[in-house]
Design a protein that fits this description.
The structure holds four protein chains of four kinds. Chain A is mainly alpha-helical. Chain A has three domains: 31 residues; 146 residues, Alpha-Beta Plaits (2-Layer Sandwich); 89 residues, no CATH class. Chain A is built from eight helices and five strands; from the N terminus they run αβαββββαααααα. The chains are: A mainly alpha, B mainly alpha, C alpha/beta, D alpha+beta.
Chain lengths: 304, 372, 153, 379
């Protein structure tokens, strides 16, 4: 009984202590409130006298910026990046080409031009590792003493995802032609085409780079029609893909068939040849029965 | 004490209609008013709750949405339009019904809860003569009607076809049914002393004697038991076990969204209002002023002098204070566990209530012999 | 030194490596692990699986600690990938999840483990990705695994 | 503990509840498969891996310097600890014996601040789990001030990449000592407020004392470490027992659970150990801030990290427990195998053992008191 009463008394006491504490906070809130009314008030990003003296790098972790005029294309920052968000292409002038690549603010003569220097800020993880190795101190997080040049970018929000891919290179097409690298322009064009195609999402293409012949869409066939038409090589005439094998009930047999399918694909076999290959493989494993064979044969004529 | 319905019938008697027809026409006015009171109460209470929470937690709370261009700066009124914006959002939101839910029951549940709260309001006096219908059995009626909601809660939890919701509704049923007992036993003290179930009579007795909470030490304890029990009955922290957002996500409300969920909210805040008013009426002198001087006037002029307009201020300020205390509880305490909740009810409150009942009876007996 | 008592007892069966770890044969592990537990090493810190990159061999490193005498012990077992290793999950309960992880990521098969299944990767995952010869699959659940990053930059 | 009734007598069925991965109090994307008998839990199976980010596979393809930002992302509530632990391991692997004094001091100062910040989250979230919302916002408010300090030092608020193998990314800002002292003066009385509001609250004690008791032998057998182990009454702290960095210079105690409100090793003890540890961290911080020497913080950073062939097992006391790193070097600039023994991984494995037989609400208390971070469990 004593414990029962004590419990109640302790309970009431501790509850009143708590309530008086919250009431205290209810009253004097001004000096304790931690809320920042974000769009109206902004917490200052800490900026330290960074200079570009290697001992005093910037502490800011905001957007990456590159002074492309100073970039010598040494690829140090690209190598330091753990997430591969920096992508640099460089072109060296061919022998005998007298193209002037320019000079940096540290009086280093540049030996190549940089036609591509993209930083994908949506991949960047703000680790600051790329800033430190730069020999010309031309890549840095925006802010600090450079404030006059580049304002601190608070949100750098964009409406589209590719808006976060920043291109810093300023080399013009003329420069690239002058330096004697027309092939680069061609390559770039192809890449841009690929990108736009992916943006339009006209069906997923698999391993186009590795196996250009087998640009067979895995996704639903009707959707895939457009990119197939765009592809240089005519597509599979027969409607046969890895999903088609699913009619086989036996798990083991189906596994072998799928393996065979992938093997055929790797061997760049197509259409009828592919089906023949699968049948041969199944036969080899002595798992081929009459039904399976006839259905597979049926695919050759285009019926499921 | 006259009721609003009586007064309205008197007021419109010049039309010469038959009373039964007139009653049907006239009833719309109090019904709409009750609905309005519920809506306004929920809107204001949600805003106040958010602000109280924010201030106790060293935050600012809603600060962006103003009302007609009024924002109030960094003060209590900073986001005065917030709940209106929220309400519009809730009403226009998609109503999601789980595929495997029992759709008819799921639709029915919010309305049962709403009807429970709505019907209770009929007997709740806002001031002298300002009660929709003045029952002889007011206390009993309120007790009965406020328990209707639990049916809706069980239906809601069951029909959602969600195990967590089921847990929530089962907990709610056990909790609400249990806490009816200490509530009833505490109200019984007032009934015992006054000798009437009519809320008006109870206040009248307090006007003649003293506030019921100060009547005896036992009624003083009874008030706290009553108040804590009604906090439990309205499912608020520290007794929000049926909702328990860190355990059951939102308990029986998990699968509800949009308009139905808004109705749950409306009823919850209406219930808070009801129990606070009942607590004020029964224990804190109802519409009597703490100074007991203003409560004079010309009889039968119910519009102005005889309490209503001044009384409503007193009653509402008492009730609002109690609502504030409920919020204060919520933002201070952790949550009890199911069995501890039951322990508190059956092993602490009910024995105390029974003892109270016994001692108050003796007090009355002795008091009757010596003081009067 | 903590490892001496093992070398003393199992002269034939164990081999002392540099930095004081002890190499044990997989077939003796059942006997030795019980002995280690009965001596003072009550705290299993870590089980590391590693790929030796030769002869299809993988290894396990057990790091023990004694809360009583504050000593360390590192045991290593190196074996063919198909060998079944005695599970110590019943002796040190800490080994339960570590062994499941070793199975999941490296494909070590433990004998006598109460609940041998994948822990970090999904159940339908193919292969054991920390093996050096593991290759990214072409498909995962019928979806092509993208390898060419040109599409999302 | 409740007795699970004999099924043969009452003929009741057990129900399988699925808690998470989207549940407010599983602290991330943990999924618990709970077998219940009414409200009473008879078996729990934690299912993890929803946040698996292939940390160990990543490490095999990254150079030692590049791993540091990834270690930050393992335990995102104590990122400084992970980077510190990793740096110590790599230094051991490289055979770097001594670092400049100032580096060690700064590391210890930041590590202890991080410990306070992490424990603040643990304390507040445990309150949140049992239903008290106000302590959570108060602790977050104070953690915010620590994070502001970190921001002024490192430039970022959560994932720092500041401690590097062999040194630091850069030096402290000029007025850091002053700011840190100001914070400590402000923060010390706040702990009393938490105690008044939450720790000694009767309802909180009811919800946490005597619940989820973890006996010492169970704790050690499961490899539990850190405050969770100390809550069971084992005074084991690597900072004291095997001082790394310069912890031997400081005077502090190792708080253990004493069963003040219930049994030794219950949820309340595990919680209270964290509160006491914050006080100990303040002690260390005050000593360290007063005696921090001058020096160059980048002097000992190796130009190229390419350790010899060999293995290393290194331990570090993070806010959650014993972080073990087993690094096998194949003589390249990338580790051939890096295994992280994450403390919360081992702490979580004990969940079924200590919470079976309790109610669903108690499971949440136990989970809150274990203080897990899913980023570190799933890696």
């Amino acid at each position: 009984m004593g414990e029962y009463i004590n419990n109640i008394i302790y309970g009431v006491k501790s509850l009143i202590t708590g309530m008086s504490l919250t009431l205290k906070h209810f009253r004097n809130k001004k000096n304790l409130v931690a809320t920042l009314q974000y769009p109206h008030e902004k917490w200052p990003i800490p900026e330290r006298n960074i200079g570009f003296d290697p001992s005093e790098y910037n502490t800011i972790r905001s957007r990456l910026h590159v002074d492309i005029d100073d970039c010598i294309g040494c690829l140090q920052c690209e190598r330091a990046c753990p997430v591969d968000c920096i992508k640099i292409d460089t072109i060296k002038p061919s022998k005998g080409n007298e193209f002037d690549c320019g000079i940096t603010s540290n009086d280093t003569r540049k030996k190549m031009i940089v036609p591509r220097f993209t930083i994908d800020m949506s991949e960047c993880m703000y680790c600051d590792l790329c800033v430190h190795p730069c020999p010309e101190e031309c890549i840095y997080m925006v802010g600090g003493p450079n404030d006059s040049k580049h304002e601190i970018d608070y949100e750098f929000s964009q409406f589209e995802r590719h808006g976060l891919v920043f291109e810093f290179a300023t080399a013009t097409d003329q420069d690239i032609i002058d330096i004697g690298a027309e092939s680069y322009l061609e390559k770039r064009k192809q890449r841009e085409q690929k990108l736009t195609r992916a943006e339009k999402l006209e069906g997923m293409l698999i391993s186009e780079g590795a196996v250009p012949v087998a640009a067979a869409p895995v996704a639903a066939a009707p959707v895939a029609a457009a990119p197939v038409a765009a592809a240089p090589v005519a597509a599979v005439s027969i409607d046969f893909n890895i999903k088609s094998i699913d009619f086989i009930k036996d798990k083991e047999v189906r596994g072998i068939a799928k393996k065979a399918f992938m093997g055929a694909k790797r061997a760049k076999l197509e259409g009828v040849a592919m089906i023949d290959f699968i049948i041969a493989e199944l036969d080899k494993a002595s798992k081929l029965d009459v039904d399976t064979k006839s259905t597979l044969e049926g695919f050759k004529e285009g019926k499921a | 004490m006259t009721s609003v319905v009586d007064s309205l019938l008197n007021l419109f008697s010049f039309t010469g209609l038959d009373n039964s027809i007139l009653l049907i026409l006239v009833l719309h006015i109090p019904a709409l008013s009750i609905f309005l009171v519920m809506v306004v109460n929920a809107t204001v209470a949600v805003y106040v709750e958010r602000k109280v929470a924010a201030f106790m937690q060293d935050r600012l709370g809603p600060m962006e949405v103003g009302l007609f261009g009024f924002k109030g700066g960094k003060k209590f009124w900073g986001g005065i339009g917030q709940t209106i914006a929220d309400a519009i959002k809730l009403l226009t939101k998609e109503d999601i019904v789980p595929d495997s839910a029992d759709k008819k029951l799921m639709l029915l549940a919010p309305f049962i809860i709403f009807i429970g709260a709505f019907l209770t309001f009929i007997a709740v006096p806002f001031s002298q003569n300002l009660v929709v219908s003045d029952f002889n059995i007011g206390v009993f009626y309120i007790m009965a009607m406020s328990s209707v909601g639990v049916i809706g809660i069980i239906i809601a939890g069951w029909s959602s076809n969600n195990k967590w919701s089921l847990y929530g509704s089962m907990r709610a049923a056990a909790q609400i049914v249990s806490y009816e007992i200490p509530i009833g036993l505490s109200l019984l003290l007032a009934v015992l002393v006054v000798g009437s179930l009519n809320l008006g009579d109870i206040v009248q007795w307090q006007a003649e004697n003293r506030w019921f909470i100060f009547h005896s030490p036992f009624t003083f304890i009874a008030f706290f038991i009553f108040f804590i029990s009604v906090v439990a009955e309205t499912n608020r922290t520290p007794f929000d076990i049926p909702e328990a957002e860190s355990e059951l996500v939102a308990g029986w409300m998990t699968e509800y969204s949009g308009f139905k969920w808004a109705i749950f909210f409306l009823s919850e805040y209406a219930n808070m209002m009801i129990v606070s008013i009942v607590a004020s009426v029964v224990f804190l002198g109802g519409w009597l002023s703490p100074f007991a001087i203003i409560n004079v006037g010309i009889p039968n002029s119910w519009m102005i002098f005889d309490g209503p307009l001044i009384g409503i201020i007193w009653l509402m300020s008492k009730a609002l204070f109690l609502i504030f205390v409920m919020m204060w509880f919520r933002w201070t305490f952790p949550r009890l566990r199911v069995d501890q909740l039951m322990y508190l009810c059956w092993k602490v409150f009910i024995p105390f209530c029974l003892a109270n009942l016994f001692f108050v009876s003796i007090w009355e007996l002795i008091g009757g012999l010596f003081f009067k | 030194m903590s490892e001496n008592f093992l070398v003393k007892k199992y002269k034939e069966k164990v081999e002392l490596l540099e930095n004081n770890s002890i190499l044990v044969d997989a077939s003796d592990w059942k006997e030795i692990s019980t002995f280690i537990f009965k001596s003072r090493f009550d705290y299993l810190m870590c089980i590391t699986s590693y790929d030796l990159e030769q002869d299809n061999k993988i290894g396990l490193a057990y790091n023990f600690y004694s809360t009583k005498s504050k000593e360390y012990l590192e045991i290593r077992i190196e074996f063919e990938a198909t060998t079944k290793v005695f599970s110590i999950a019943e002796i040190w309960r800490a080994a339960d999840w570590h062994e499941r992880e070793a199975y999941d990521l490296m494909g070590v098969i433990f004998e006598g483990h109460p609940d041998m299944k994948r822990i970090l990767l999904p159940d339908d995952w193919d292969g054991h990705p920390l093996r050096k010869d593991w290759k990214e699959p072409e498909y995962y659940n019928g979806m092509p695994v993208p390898k060419d990053k040109t599409y999302w930059e | 503990m409740y007795k699970v009734l004999d099924k043969s007598i009452i003929g009741a069925d057990e129900m399988v509840m699925n808690m998470g991965p989207q549940h407010p109090s599983t602290h991330g994307v943990l999924r618990l498969k709970i077998v219940t008998d009414g409200e009473i839990v008879s078996h729990i199976e934690p299912i993890i891996g929803y946040l698996h980010r292939c940390f160990e596979k990543h490490c095999e393809n990254l150079s030692y310097e590049q791993i540091v930002p990834f270690t930050d992302r393992c335990d995102y509530l104590a990122a400084m600890h992970m980077a510190h632990g990793y740096s110590i391991a790599v230094e051991k692997l490289l055979g770097i014996e001594e670092l400049p004094e100032r580096v060690e001091y700064i590391r210890v100062i930041l590590a202890e601040f991080q410990r306070i910040a992490s424990h603040l989250i643990a304390v507040g979230v445990f309150g949140l789990d049992v239903g008290a919302i106000t302590p959570f916002t108060w602790t977050l408010r104070d953690r915010e001030r620590i994070i502001d300090l970190f921001e002024s030092v490192t430039g970022s608020r959560l994932l720092y990449n500041y401690i590097w193998p062999g040194g630091l990314a850069h030096d402290l800002p000029p007025n850091f000592i002053q700011k840190a002292n100001d914070f400590l003066n402000y923060f010390e009385p706040q702990i009393e407020e938490y105690n008044n509001l939450l720790t000694t609250n009767k309802i909180f004690i009811e919800r946490s004392a005597d619940i989820g008791v973890m006996p010492v032998d169970v704790a050690i057998n499961y490899g539990v470490s850190g405050p969770t182990l100390r809550g069971s009454g084992v005074p084991f702290d690597l900072r004291k027992d095997e001082p790394y960095s310069i912890y031997q210079k400081f005077d502090f105690d190792v708080p253990v659970g004493e069963g003040l409100m219930g049994t030794v090793g219950d949820c309340w003890d595990r919680y209270y150990v964290k509160v006491l540890e914050m006080k100990e961290s303040i002690k260390i911080l005050k000593q360290a801030l007063n005696s921090i020497p001058e020096g160059d913080v980048k002097a000992a950073i190796p130009k190229k990290i390419r350790p010899k062939k060999g293995e290393i097992y290194s331990r570090y006391e993070t806010a959650r427990g014993d972080l073990g790193l087993y690094i096998r070097s194949g003589g390249k600039n990338m580790p051939s195998r890096l295994k992280m023994r994450s403390p919360a991984y081992c702490n979580l494995s004990v969940l079924n053992e200590i919470s079976a037989g309790w109610m669903i609400s108690d499971v949440i208390s136990v989970l809150g008191s274990l203080d897990i971070v899913l980023g570190e469990i799933d890696r």
